[in-house]
Automatic annotation (TrEMBL), chain A:
Pfam families: ABC_tran. SUPFAM superfamilies: P-loop containing nucleoside triphosphate hydrolases. Keywords: ATP-binding, Nucleotide-binding, Transport. Residues 2-238 form the ABC transporter domain. InterPro entries: AAA+_ATPase, ABC_transporter-like_ATP-bd, ABC_transporter-like_CS, P-loop_NTPase. GO terms for molecular function: ATP binding; ATP hydrolysis activity. SMART domains: AAA. This is ABC transporter ATP-binding protein. It comes from the Bacteria. The lineage of its organism: Bacteria, Pseudomonadati, Thermodesulfobacteriota, Desulfobacteria, Desulfobacterales. The keyword Secreted does not apply.
Length: 238, 273
């Protein structure tokens, strides 16, 4: 479903991704781990076409997104949902308007139908009575939940998560982890998660990929990663 | 071979202080040309989005309220006092050779042709242009603009185009208000305070001010609306560097818009009048 082939990307002469190859399995949770500032977010933004590679191919359902124009890219993006690190909720809109935004943009549903879907998605992420609140009135964990509700509003086939547990306390992290697992089980979508939280990674992942120096140096099930003899992987997972 | 020759040139530049000096002196011009190019590309892109559905009337009306309705008070104050001070200065000048009867026409011509559009644009730049940059800049650094991309919504269509349309439409409306209260302020100072004959004051305005003067002033206002919104949006969507970057971008936006308004005012005036 998603395949990255020999991706190279540099910023101001500094190589961030170096001939990176990665295949993401459909309908599974793949967690990409690696050091902070190691290019994980850049990799995720390549998948959804926010950044184009200097060279290489990003194949989504067999289409090379790196070669698409804005209009074609927008069509492909309709199969995606994305949860940003700080949720990236629109400050000027209420929680309900945030979740309704993709529905208003891409469907012809009536206001009543949209309101029902918004309620349903907010309930799916364990949020009640927040529809009329502004994002600034929510805690970090609640913002992430709203971000996830917005990301899954159009029932996307692929959902990307940029460090979903960063900045949250351990209890809140566990809540988000459970939410990721349950949502994936329920939607059967392909989840790609960027993380440096090892505990969380082993809890939610079907597959784990380790990014190091611009390359995927190891990919496998959590068990295979735990048993890996690769010194970098061993040091990273402690 | 090509690499060696460029390497050789670069080494030569390192050694030659004259070349380094020229490079340093030329860099701001190169940056200015690059920025101008990007602003023009943004204008072209926003213009093409104006013609493509969905037309986003709701967002445009919301922006029109922000640009126009919410700026009325500040425009009323500046417009009135501009007309008043202009009448006061003109009166003292004309009095030296007994031409006080021309104060009304001078104020009306000055306000409709220049002071109304330019001061309105400067006030709106300070209030609205800065807010556009700050809002879009914050959206950029908090990844809200990236979020729009991921939801297949073009940020130029959703954020930039409505702001530009609203500013182009509302600046002339605000200028009409400013022109009206400016002439009223001039009337108050000239007739009520300086005791110029009311009939003469009004008759000279009617005699010298033509509809074309007012109309050209409104065209100027629309051009200034385009300038301040385009630069405000451009600086916003190019913001980098967190909260500090938003502050810098906002300052740059206000300064660049104000300077561009003054420069373009000269060329528009020389073309129109």
């Amino acid at each position: 479903m998603i395949k990255l082939i020999k991706i190279c990307k540099s910023f101001k002469g500094q190589k961030v991704l170096d001939n990176l190859d990665l295949k993401i399995e459909p309908e599974k949770i793949t967690v990409i781990i690696g050091r902070s500032g190691g290019g994980k977010s850049v990799l995720l933004k390549h998948i959804i076409g926010l950044i184009k590679p200097d060279s290489g191919q990003v194949l989504v359902n067999g289409v090379d997104t790196a070669k698409l124009n804005d209009k074609e890219l927008n069509e492909i993006r309709k199969v995606f949902g994305m949860l940003f690190q700080d949720a990236a909720l629109f400050d000027s809109m209420t929680v309900g308007e945030n979740v309704a935004f993709p529905l208003k943009e891409h469907t012809k549903l009536s206001k009543k139908e949209i309101d029902e879907i918004v309620e349903e998605k907010l309930l799916a992420v364990d949020l009640k009575n927040v529809t009329h609140k502004m994002p600034s009135e929510l805690s970090g964990g609640m913002r992430k939940r709203v971000g996830l509700a917005r990301a899954i509003a159009l029932n996307p086939k692929i959902v990307l998560f940029d460090e979903p547990t960063t900045g949250l306390d351990p209890i809140m992290c566990e809540g988000i982890d459970n939410l990721v697992i349950n949502t994936q089980r329920h939607t059967k979508a392909t989840f790609v998660v960027i993380s440096h939280d090892i505990r969380s990674t082993f809890k939610i992942a079907h597959k784990v990929a380790m990014l190091y120096k611009g390359k995927i140096i190891k990919i496998g099930t959590p068990e295979e990663i735990r048993l890996s003899n690769n010194p970098v992987v061993k040091r990273f997972i402690g | 071979m090509g690499y060696e020759s460029s390497n050789h040139r670069s080494n030569e530049a390192d050694r030659n202080p004259m070349i380094r000096l020229l490079e340093l002196a030329g860099r701001p011009f190169i940056i200015a040309v690059e920025e101008s190019g990007r602003i023009i590309l943004l204008l072209i892109s926003a213009s093409t989005w104006m013609l493509r559905p969905p037309f986003r009337f709701r967002v445009i009306f919301k922006q029109m309220e922000f640009v126009g309705v919410n700026s009325i008070f500040v425009v009323l104050i500046t417009g009135t006092f501009t007309g008043m001070v202009f009448a006061l200065q003109s009166y003292h000048g004309f009095k030296m050779f007994g031409g006080e009867s021309l104060v009304g026409a001078t104020v009306a011509l000055g306000v409709t042709r220049e002071l109304g559009p330019v001061f309105t644009a400067l006030m709106v730049t300070g209030r609205v242009g800065s807010a556009m940059t700050a809002e879009l800049g914050t959206m950029k650094v908090t990844e809200q603009i990236d979020a729009l991309h991921t939801m297949s919504v073009n940020p130029i269509h959703y954020l930039v185009m409505p702001r530009i349309v609203a500013a182009i439409v509302m600046l002339p409306v605000l200028t009409i208000v400013s022109d009206f209260v400016g002439i009223l302020g001039g009337y108050f100072v000239g007739v009520e305070l300086m005791k110029i004959n009311s009939g003469i004051f009004i008759a000279k305005i009617v005699e010298f001010v033509e509809l074309e003067d007012i109309f050209n002033g409104l065209i100027k206002a629309a051009c200034f609306g385009l300038i301040l919104s385009l630069i405000g949006c451009y600086k916003g969507i190019r913001t980098t560097g967190g909260a500090e970057g938003v502050g810098k971008a906002t300052t740059q936006s206000v300064v660049l818009s104000s300077v561009t308004i003054f420069i373009s005012d000269y060329f528009l005036t020389s073309f129109m009048f």
